[in-house]
Amino acid sequence: MPTKVSCTREGLPISKKHVHEIAESIKGKNVEKAIKYLERVRLKQDFVPFIKYPSKGHKHGIPAGYPKKASLQIIRMLKEMQANAKYMGFEVSGLKVSGYELGRGAYPRYGGGKVYRRGKRTNITIYTVIDQERKKVEKKEEQKKEDEAQAKEQNPKIQEKGIKAGEVSKETGEKTDAAKKDN
User: Fold this and answer.
1) Which CATH number fits domain 3-130: 3.90.1150.10, 3.90.470.10, 3.30.70.240, 3.90.190.20?
2) Which DSSP category does 163 fall into?
C-alpha cells in the first residue's frame, strides 16, 4: 500500500514564484540528486530554468536564475523529508520527489496592525509516495541489556534485590518503579 511521506513549512520568507520553479525542476528526481543540484544552484554553478515565470522583473529574456534563499529552504525540507522517511522505517536511498503543494502565506503584520503587503511569505509541502514495506525496528539483545542496566542505575532497590524492571517484588508484593511508570 503506498504511503505518503512529506515535509511542510509555513510562512517562509521566500518568493512563491522561485519555489514553484525550483519544485518543478526537482520533481521526479532522486532526493540526493536534488540536494546536490540545489547546492550547485546556491554556488551559481547550475541554474534553475524559469518556465512558468520567465521574466525576472526588468531582466526580460533571461529564462533562468539562481534563487539562493529558496534553494536553501528547499534543501532543508528535502533533508527533513529524508529524516521523516527514515523515522517511519523506510529505506532512504531510493526516495524520489513525487510532488509539491504551494500557497501564499499570511502577510507579515507590524505595529498597530499595519500590514506590509510586499512581504513574501510562502507555504509549501514537498512529498514522496513510497510503495515499499516498512522495516520493523526490533531491539537487539544488547539494547535490551543496556536498558536494564540503566534501570538498575536509576533505582538502587533493583540492584539490591536483583529484581528485573517490570517484575513484582516477592517481599512487598508491589510492582517495581519501572512497572509503575508503564501503567
Assistant:
1) 3.90.470.10
2) P
Domain boundaries, the chain: 3-130, 141-182
Identify the pLDDT of residue 149. 75
Q: What is the pLDDT of residue 52?
A: 85
Regions of the chain short of the pLDDT cut 50: none
CB burial of residue 103 (10 Å; 0-12, 13-18, 19+): exposed
Residue in the block written with cell 500500500: 1
| Distance from C-alpha of 13 to C-alpha of 69, rounded to nearest angstrom | 9
Please identify which residue in the block is written with the cell numbers 539562481: 66
Which bin fits 97, alpha (ψ -120 to 50), beta or left (φ > 0)? beta
Residues in CB range of 15: below 8 A, 6 or more apart: 67, 70, 120, 122
Amino acid identity, position 135: K
Strand pairing of 99-104 and 122-130?
antiparallel
> 99 vs 37, 78, 105, 116, 126, CA distance in Å?
17, 12, 19, 31, 6
* Residues whose CB falls within 8 Å of the CB of residue 143, separated by 6 or more in sequence, listed in order: none
Total-model pTM: 0.68
